[in-house]
Amino acid sequence: MTTKVNTELSYDNKIILAPMVRVCTLPMRLLALDYGADIVYTEELIDWKFLKCIRRENDVLGTIDYLDKSDGSVVFRTCHKEKNKVIVQLGTCDTQRALKYSSGGSKEIEVYEDIIKFKNECGCSSVMIARAAEGNCSIFRQRGLLDLEDVIVDYLKYAVDYDNSPSNTKYCIQNMLKELQETSRGKKFLECQTLEQIWY
């Protein structure tokens, strides 16, 4: 006797990390799930680039990696923690390959309660969060926002554990810091070039 596995993802009453270029890599997606997001999107992956990839199981990191055959760079990385919760967003200019997708959100969302308010006012069952999550991923926590420094430390743990590229890690932290980049500590951070420098 075989058991049928239901792989259909429901968007009903969900809080979603919206797709953001260079932000929605594995560390940010895992952090959003840790903080309470129900579904997470990848950054947009261009179809022709994704089609050139080879799939590799990375036993060291415990991930599935899709590597660009031309240079070995990671195009997409996932792990068991986000199974059945991640949406891979593929972009295309070929109508034969195109899939319909939509997103929504509001610049008015700054804390978890704003998500609920937005859902109620719009009569929608689910809300997809982008910019607020980019600035402080703990927006998904029902118990309130965490201190930005704690969020950055949690993000860095994932970035190191899953070997995220230093340039992408730096980009995501810059988006969290925003105007704090102009402080002496922020300027010191901007000089960092490696994950080790960023961490310390």
Automatic annotation (TrEMBL):
InterPro entries: Aldolase_TIM (IPR013785), tRNA-DUS-like (IPR052582). GO terms for cellular component: cytoplasm. GO terms for molecular function: tRNA dihydrouridine synthase activity. It comes from the Eukaryota. This is Dus domain containing protein. It comes from Asbolus verrucosus.
